Amino acid sequence: MAAISPSELHPRAGSLPSWGRLLFLALWLALLAPAAPAHPMPKSFVEVRVLPDRWQLHLILPADRLEAAFVQAQLVPDPGPGSDARPQLQAAAVRDYVNARIGLRSVAGPAWEQHVTAVQAPQGQLDEWRVTLEALPPAGATPDQVVLRDEVLIREIATHDAVISLLQDWRGGVLPSQPQLLGSLGGEHHELLIERRAAQPWRAWLSMVLLGARHILEGLDHLAFLVTLILTVPLQAVAGRWQARAQLRPAVLATLWWVSAFTLGHSLSLLAASLGWLPPSGQAVEVLIAVSVGVSAAHALRPLYPRREAFVAGGFGLIHGLAFSTAIRELSLSAGQVVAATLSFNLGIELVQLGLVLVLVPFFIHTRHWVWSGWLRRAIALAALSTAAYWAVTRAMML
Amino acid sequence: MTTTRSTSPLSLRLKAALCILALAGLAACGGGGGDSSSASSSGSGSSSSGSDSSSSSGSDSSSSSDCSSQTTEGAKLTCLANAFLATLSSSQQSSVVYALTSSNATNYWSNLPTTLVTRHGIALKDLSATAKTAAEALIAAALSSQGQTTMTGERAADGYLAQYQSSGYGQDLYYISFLSSTSSSSTSTMPSASPWILEFTGHHYTFLASVDGDIIGLTPNFVGVEPRAQFTYNGTAYQPMLSRHDTLLAMLNGLSSTQLSSAKLSQAYDDVLVGPQKDGNYPSTQQGLAVSALSDSQKALVKAAIASYASDANGTGQYDAYTTDSAINGTYIAWASYSDLSTKGSYVRIDGPGVWIEFSVQSGIVLSDNHYHSIWRDKSLDYGGNFSF
């Protein structure tokens, strides 16, 4: 953390920052000095997002520094020498304080119209305030060079540093998964020129493909569903029990139909939810996903819905797609961008699915007559079933 | 003998070692010595460590007796550096000698634990007994007896912290490296006629002693401490920043209320301004109260505060340069937030034509009490004046 400023923050207050910030911290550290990533810093962070019709500024402010700034600016009474008492800050006062000290403008123009959209007081172990502002570029302008003025904490605390990063600019291919470090402000430096990358559509698409691939690879529940689905590909139900198929062709066809149905289901709901036609995915969807894994695992133990797997896979696909859409919705893209983002995100998901199918299906088909293959299938299905039950309970408790 | 050495109070060991080195008149060869460190153990403790040091003089004298005949402090330091390098293997030698570049000089020291910011060189804890003896003699030779007391107390404080949090802190988790203007891959000696720097850095204490013929500077010199109150480590009591704190506080307390209010800065300071990797980050104009307007007794308090830092150096002449009439009259003092040097956020600064001293009170990191960061810089002699910022 270091052409990093010469200061340390309390490890006792050390809780995990959000993954985006953690990633960013790691990036910053990697750039400037080798260091341990989880060590929090008394810096503030400003995350800039270029949205279709507006710019968003998200500030992360260490609470003790904000309190010191309020005392220095005489916005709260000084607890006085010798006192360790921490002044209480009101959200409305924090909103006005921040709003007066940060803003955007075109290089040769007045400050953009802006308003604070959210103020979040410190929560739990995270001893930091979070403030979100939105600024509107002048009508008709597509600003490529924008000046960020930031005096938040900097005006009052001579030694404060604010780290500025570009979190999102779809046109230049900058997405929160790979933020761009813009620089830092502090001391007598209050202004930073943001120069946007030239339009590079493929960069954003590629990022979304990678994001989709990473999303499913990190989403153990999606993988578990897919594995339990293809467990029964080489089998057929005979009198309520699984038996190995005699021929190869129906197994390959089953793979194609089932996986395609799942893909079709989650693609449709992903697109619909990303475009806002469906309500945002919530905790209930997470519970349903756990249930879908459980049902599919149970089906791999004993046939529950033989010859109707494609329909079930398609239906469950609709549910999984709702969860995928969260990653896209939070980007706040325009309709056109959403379609491009969804397609590339989906492509990433499909590529991982395809890889998994190409590895597992030949293995299951090839070993379907082997004595131990039934035990392997039951072991996998039982593991998935118990994990799904655990997910369902813990997720339902968060409802 | 090795076991006894490792448990004996370091400050006494160093003082005894210095007596052996015969660094004339500079070392306090008597008992407790410095104002902020005293042996809390009984007389038997100090006498046993004294005899321990003299019993180890055989190995010391073999490397240092040559150096004691050197006529200048710079020549002595160069001699001791080469005696230390001679105790290292060739791979160790190449890992402690770096080219004298701005990047090497400025980027590998910090007030953060050594686990967070990489230090160049080799840690004292990784040296053989012979090499460590030579290293301690070298470090001590860059410092006055006041400076040795500071350094010993600083390292004891890190040893004390290691009892609470072992990762990143330790009495011997301090690194020695060299920056040489004649460095090449085969360099194993420091030059006597061109510039080189001894860098000694750990968690809360760093100095870069610059040699160009003679020793010309000890800066940047970072001095911080946690815990700030007196603590006992291996039987010895320490409070390594006591005299710094007290002289700076006396300087502020010596001001009238009018003077105090005009010395107050308009911003808050949560750390030092010209800290690690902030070289040259001085304000564009001097701020606060001009020392030229102070009475002689008030000026004496400013000089005493400067001495609490600059007199840690051995023979650099920096203190004398800072306290000439013209230098002291071109000096400003300032403070921020609280002038008690106790409350979190309390801050004081001395800003002269050459000298720059900052002292900052901050939250505790490992312990709950507040702790101190401070830095002494020299606007023209940091890193021997080899770079400009």
Automatic annotation (TrEMBL), chain A:
Superkingdom of this protein's organism: Bacteria
Record Pfam families: HupE_UreJ_2
Descriptive protein name: HupE / UreJ protein
InterPro entries cross-referenced by the UniProt entry: Put_HupE_UreJ (IPR032809)
Record's keyword terms, sorted: Membrane, Transmembrane, Transmembrane helix
Keyword Transmembrane recorded: yes
Lineage: Bacteria, Pseudomonadati, Pseudomonadota, Gammaproteobacteria, Nevskiales
Regions that span the bilayer: 222-239, 251-278, 284-301, 310-328, 340-363, 375-393
Organism expressing this protein natively: Solimonas aquatica
UniProtKB/TrEMBL annotation, chain B:
Signal peptide: 1-27
Pfam family, one: DUF3500
Biased composition (Low complexity): 36-67
Taxonomic superkingdom: Bacteria
Region span, Disordered: 31-67
Family annotation (InterPro entries): DUF3500
Keywords attached to this entry: Signal
PANTHER family: DUF3500 DOMAIN-CONTAINING PROTEIN
Protein name from the UniProt record: DUF3500 domain-containing protein
Organism: Solimonas aquatica
